[in-house]
Amino acid sequence: MSIHYPAGVKTPSTSPEMEKKKKKATSQKKKLHFKVQPGNRGMAFEDDINQTNQYYLDHDLAVIHKKPTPINIVKVDYTHGAKITQAYFEEPSTTDYNGIYQGRYIDFEAKSTHSKTSFPLSNIAPQQITHLKAVMKHGAIAFFLINIVPLNETYLLPAEYVCAFYEEKPRKSIPLEEIKKHGHLVKEGYAPRLDYLPILDEFFLK
Amino acid sequence: MSIHYPAGVKTPSTSPEMEKKKKKATSQKKKLHFKVQPGNRGMAFEDDINQTNQYYLDHDLAVIHKKPTPINIVKVDYTHGAKITQAYFEEPSTTDYNGIYQGRYIDFEAKSTHSKTSFPLSNIAPQQITHLKAVMKHGAIAFFLINIVPLNETYLLPAEYVCAFYEEKPRKSIPLEEIKKHGHLVKEGYAPRLDYLPILDEFFLK
Is A78 on the interface with B (CB under 8 A)? Predict the structure, then answer.
């Protein structure tokens, strides 16, 4: 079977690691029901996180869910059941993921970037910073999962650091070396795909 | 201005309490942008909870949000911005509300019933019971807010009780006297409209 890789994604070698990724990409493509475009790497990342959270749920480790995309519904046709015929995407006022782990409230946002050198802060909405600061004040474990697409690496970066950087630094992006210094590389695998809980154990719960 | 009360709702007397409610109903009607139907009492209840959570957020007491309604998007027209032209409502796999209070993960579902004598369990999806049991296992404060429409009363009922009733009792609804016995009447007011945090202080956090 031939795999049609999206533009901008390197043709993989045939190492077992890459074979695994190939399979993963194929299954994700099927699930998405549309052709994978370069911009949809973000969706594959989201899929990895959702599958990780499902793994945590199935193994009774944590209960963390992605919130549905906020949508402003304008028209619904009730002729045959309820079919939404006019609606618009809304700006999220919070982050995408929250839940509970080890009795603690967990809150995070996941973002992927195509930049090899930095994470552009334009990816983060101001109200998300406000939200993260509020939950941290009440005792949450809050962070970002940042996927650096060209490196195929994901970092867990504490929200405390991101919020401080966002508000104090006159810069439009967080340099990669800063992400590496203040963040933690998330171990990738088959299941869970992005094992971020051990990082919480080590750096937030000790 | 005349108010068109929905069928099944008593015409109010002219007591100050009722006048206040009248005003509230009118402002809610404006907000909803459509005629209030009997089934929409649930939306007014939702509105009360959202305004309560906003009050808690504004006063730095808790960060609790309603999750957006899960929607399965089928078609999006990108001609002028992004307009969703075909989408369907999905069954929620979790509860509607979650967040953090006093460092604790909070999770609840809100339901209103038109029955004067009991709360029908058909209002609760099996996966919501599964979800509530999972979060409780991990240390959540979990409950239901049940609005008894004909009595104009709201009760906070611990999820632990509801889950046990759901699974152990061969009954299709929780009788009102059981709700009163195991639940706690939520104080209604102007702001916050449904002050449920004091109940958490007294019965979950002590």
Answer: no
- The complex scores an ipTM of 0.80
The number of beta carbons lying within 10 Å of the beta carbon of residue B38 is 13
Q: What are the extents of the domains in chain A?
A: 16-203
Distance CA B161, CA A104 (A): 22
Of B57, B67, B105, the CB nearest to A68: B67
A171 token code pair: 């810069």
With contact defined as beta carbons under 8 Å apart, do B191 and B204 qualify?
no
Enter the tokens of residue B189. 């007011």
pLDDT in tens, B152-181: 999 999 999 999 999 988 889 999 999 999
Nearest to B176 by CA among B142, B201, B138, B148: B148
Place of tokens 């401080």: A164
Q: Nearest chain A Cα to B64, which residue?
A: A135
Rounded to whole angstroms, how far apart are CA atoms B79 and B195? 45
Q: What is the pLDDT of residue B2?
A: 42
What digits encode the pLDDT tens for the residues A175-184?
999 999 999 9
Report CB contact under 8 Å: A140, B100. Answer: yes
Identify the CATH number of the domain defined by range B16-203: 3.40.1350.10
Task: List A113's β-bridge partners, or say none.
Answer: A148
For chain A, counts of helices (H) and of strands (E) = 6, 12
Q: How many residues does chain A have?
A: 206
Could you tell me what percent of chain B has a pLDDT over 90?
A: 74
Nearest to B136 by CA among A82, A5, A100, A171: A100
The candidate with the shortest Cα–Cα distance to A88, out of B168, B167, B64, B78, is B78
Enumerate the H helices of B59-125 as residue ranges. Answer: none
